[in-house]
Amino acid sequence: MRITASIGIALYTADIATPDALMVQADLALYRAKEDGRDCFRFHSDELDLKIHERVTVAAELRAAIERGEMRLHYQPQVDLASGRTVGIEALVRWQHPQRGLIGPAEFIPIAERTGSIVALGQWVLDEACRQLNTWQRQGLHPGVVAVNVSAVQIKTQPTLARDIAATLARWQINPHDMELELTESVLMDVSQQHSQAFEALRQVGVRTAIDDFGTGYSSLQYLTTYPVTRLKIAQDLVSGVNSDGRNATVVRAAIRLAQELGIDCIAEGVETKAQADFLVSAGCDSAQGYYFGAPVSAEQMTHRLRQQSPRRKLASPKLTVVA
pLDDT category, 319, cuts 50, 70, 90? Predict the structure, then answer.
């Protein structure tokens, strides 16, 4: 057995009122050591106190923000590489903070997961995505599959997750096959065997499931045979190097071939250049998303994009000949 230690260290000063206060500082430093990879030591500092205070403040504000309606969904198109048409949309949460402006998920999702707010936030994201999809469908617009992200915390602590998802889909009259849940490889590995029934419950609901950031997580591919996965999303870290790093290109080709062999869909994330898109086409990838095709935008802007490519608009084009 190999035993390691994570250590937090606090130094006594005249400003520390009690031994308990000193222990609190050491405990905060200990958690910093664990966050930094474990098997290391960290000293307490004023900077750490400030970060903890900011985390607590953000956690409290986030809970209120969900209730006050400050959360927003932006939508990034997923396109067919052959035609450039939108075949899916990923819903990405943002926080419209009254003082700080629009805040990206990297600043508050980890805090939401630590404090448990991710359950309420995840439910809001799903409900809003379904409401918007219902609106598009009633307008005659068909964006394809709408994807939302799911946290390991939701699977572990929300035993009614599948039931809640089914109820939300029914409330907005959404076909389960039009909704996709994205989980990272680390989420799949983090969820222990005792939670495997949650994936079976999701399969019974009928929603699609995708492995996000594929290729950057665990090396074991056993989960591909264990969980009902319908799509692989090749990570941006791999896609960004396909034209400059032969190893990246080889791994991306292998991931695409793996998806084809398994009979599941494959999409590349983070495409930013035409050269990357051309490589993916040559490698046999069907679809992609990234800033080259479109940044995440508001629902209103995505509605405009969908109208631009709607079949009705194309029928009105003088270049199209309709044969009855």
Answer: very low
